[in-house]
Amino acid sequence: LSSDEYVAKTFERIRRLEGRINAFITVRDEQRVLDEVKMSVKKGGRLAGVLIAVKDNISTRDVRTTCASKMLENYVPPYDATVISKLKMEGAVILGKTNMDEFAMGSTTETSYFGPTRNPWDLSRTPGGSSGGSGSSLAAGYVDLALGSDTGGSIRTPASFTSTFGLKPSYGTVSRYGLVAYANSLEQIGPMAKNSRDLALLFSVIAGNDQRDATTIDYTPPSSVSPISIKGIKVGVLQDIMNASDPGVAGKVRDFLDRMSSEGAIIEETSLGMTDYVLPTYYIIAMSEASSNLARYDGVRYGHSSNMEGNWKEVYSKTRGEGFGKEVKRRILLGSFILSAGYYEQFYIRALKVRRLIRDSLEKLFAKYDVIISPTAPVLPPKIGEVIDDPVKMYAMDVATVTANLAAIPSLSIPAGFYNGLPVGLQLMGRYLSDTFLMGISLYME
Ligand code: GLN
């Protein structure tokens, strides 16, 4: 395929499907994209001339970065996130910025100011979230590579609902410089792709120590992945999550485990023992960090402004009242409440302690097992509108994913097949820095 054909085909597909799918908030100009593809094919690199879709909470120089919020509707960053600089160095070309839940708060890509993204496998359903635009851009065949971010499942849930591959990397392996902050202690930028090989390649390009993010560690992943034979590896299956899952979902995961077992893996039922606590712990910490991070949108420095005269309090309230959507406001209110004097110890400090207990109980599991498996999401992709007005129902979709963020460990979602025509995803969790090991297993099973 020549550069001209590749770019023309891609844009043709976008023109044909995007009206229904809405995977992108911004698609870049076709001529500019073509020029860059040609130039980077000449220059070379591990991703020379490859188009990539980037979640719209990752800073891209001269390309609007909205976080799917009215607050940043017209914000054009003057700088690239570290992951974007690294992509460009290897020759990747940004096709566009993908739709997401506003400020990455949600699990279905329905809280976006720019309207929901639809699931290419079934247009009446959500692609999951919050990186739903990235998942749909893969499933719609626009791109082979995409970037998402994962604070509590936002890469893995859309991967699961769109039958693609998504990695929430070990905390500290990928720079967050240029990622619009939601909950710093939980989130990582990560790769999404249509197979394990591409996933590992993209991970190796974006990972690495960064002076601009003090939480990054000195770790360089291998530049490619080889299949890892699963003969003799010990797999723990989270039985409480299996039991709480839609029978169609659990059935597909069981089929996959049977395949692993016939390849010689040792499969055992187990449990975290703390499953009832993971969601409250996650949401208390995530909302607290969110309320503090989002204080910066004051209508003065950048972003939406109410343009009114008045004292600071009035302008601040009006700007934020107009600029933020309902889910974001809910979290700012709850987060501020949790952090307020008198409640801080009762909620925030206690959540940090439980977080430690969750880490400890995972450590015990990893003394026994090499991999821990469960469904990625306990449900099939919901219909658009089905969970959006019921936050507790929406939060409950994250029961399997938030654990890895609380514990900083890697977690991978891979396709486990289809049930009634709808994608089912399977989640693998591993020890800290076992990212490549997880992808090696998934490559073997492909
Ligand atoms: N659904 C979770 C939340 O709303 C996770 C979102 C994410 O990973 N960014 O917090």
From TrEMBL:
One of its GO terms (cellular component) is glutamyl-tRNA(Gln) amidotransferase complex. It is an enzyme of class 6 (ligase). PROSITE patterns: AMIDASES (PS00571). The active site is at 55 (charge relay system), 130 (charge relay system), 154 (acyl-ester intermediate). It comes from the Archaea. GO terms for biological process: translation. Keywords: ATP-binding, Ligase, Nucleotide-binding, Protein biosynthesis, Transferase. InterPro entries: Amidase (IPR000120), Amidase_CS (IPR020556), Amidase_dom (IPR023631), AS_sf (IPR036928), GatA (IPR004412). It catalyses: L-glutamyl-tRNA(Gln) + L-glutamine + ATP + H2O = L-glutaminyl-tRNA(Gln) + L-glutamate + ADP + phosphate + H(+). It holds the Pfam family Amidase. GO terms for molecular function: ATP binding; glutaminyl-tRNA synthase (glutamine-hydrolyzing) activity; transferase activity. Residues 6-436 form the Amidase domain. Its EC number is 6.3.5.7. Heterotrimer of A, B and C subunits. Allows the formation of correctly charged Gln-tRNA(Gln) through the transamidation of misacylated Glu-tRNA(Gln) in organisms which lack glutaminyl-tRNA synthetase. The reaction takes place in the presence of glutamine and ATP through an activated gamma-phospho-Glu-tRNA(Gln). Belongs to the amidase family. GatA subfamily. This is Glutamyl-tRNA(Gln) amidotransferase subunit A. It comes from Metallosphaera hakonensis JCM 8857 = DSM 7519.
